[in-house]
Amino acid sequence: MSEAICHNFKCGFHVDRVNPTCDEKECRFNETKYGQTTLVENIFAASDSVKNGRTLDDVLAHLMTEVGELAQEIIIEQGRSHKQPGKDGVVGEAIDVINCVLDIIRLMEPNITEQQLRVICDPKLDKWKKYAYGWYKNKESQNG
Alpha-carbon dihedral of residues 111, 114, 119, 121, nearest 10 degrees? Predict the structure, then answer.
């Protein structure tokens, strides 16, 4: 159900379903519009470049809208809706959520670095993996 994406999902170029390959001349895999090397750095640079007077409440409200759009795309992808998928699909909507979340972090802590985020994130990832693994093992034991 999801829209086809370019060769190896590299550039994000949305491909026509009739012709499910992208023109490599148009591939944006090597482009870095904001001049940074990582996703987080790119989003931080974009966040820093937006000077529109937005507040945390503004971004939070937009985040909730994006989470709703992501939920809708997941429901469509699972076949539980009569609606057609949007042009961004699940991945595009998830990226919109990530953009908003990182914008909130940047607004709260304008000087935070990706390395500092990693220091905060790593223990949370460990906790998440432990929970996810425990949930899976528990569900597995219940099923048989």
Answer: 110
Q: What is the DSSP string of the chain?
A: -PPPBSGGG-S--B--TTS-S--GGG--TT--TTS-SSHHHHHHHHHHH--S---HHHHHHHHHHHHHHHHHHHHHHTT--SSPPPSSHHHHHHHHHHHHHHHHHHHH-TT--HHHHHHHHHHHHHHHHHHHHHHHHHHHHHH-
Q: Which two tokens stand for residue 89?
A: 């699909």
pLDDT of 40 over the 70 cut: yes
Closest CA to 103 of 31, 43, 29, 18: 43
Class of domain 35-112: mainly alpha
**pLDDT band per the 50, 70, 90 thresholds, residue 29:** very low
